[in-house]
Amino acid sequence: MDFNEMKTIWNLQNNQPLYSINEQALYERIQQKKQQAFHITQISELLLIIVNLGCGCFIASINKSSISLYLLAAWMLVSGLYILISRIRRIQGNKRFDRSIQGDMEHALSVATYQVHISILGRWNIVPIGILVLFSLLESDKPIWIAVVLFIFLALVHYATGWEHTLYKTRKRELETLQNQLKTNTPSDIQTH
């Protein structure tokens, strides 16, 4: 349900106060958007933390002599720790938003902005990881076709993460549009439509 559909509902509800219906519908819409952004962000963060820290520890433990694999393990551990620290800061920052409609809207936008940031990090983190993996393959004298297949796979992953990033940007833009509509349509404006 978008903002215009909610306004239509308000206009159809003749026997109830328009602004109270409007406010409740807006609040539910904002809550829905906020929960959606919050849920996706939590899953993304946890996946990135577990994958980076887990792979970094595993690579460091099995590696015996490859410099590229040591660098890869270090890079993944640093990436995982960075996301973990960002998650802690994000959760601590949740306290600064009040529980009003405006506060929930700002909170939803903050989470959506953070999700866009995390998706950029995840997307471009593939580049150094891919380079280090390819170097480690070349160091180990593996057949070149393995490196080619891996390069194609990483290119496809990079492309897919670009699609994911665009999706998050679109969701953030929807929230910004809804916030702008709320700022420009005061209750007296809405009741006259």
TrEMBL record:
Keywords: Membrane, Transmembrane, Transmembrane helix. It comes from the Bacteria. The chain crosses the membrane at residues 43-61, 67-85, 120-138, 144-163. This is Uncharacterized protein. It comes from Xanthocytophaga agilis. The lineage of its organism: Bacteria, Pseudomonadati, Bacteroidota, Cytophagia, Cytophagales.
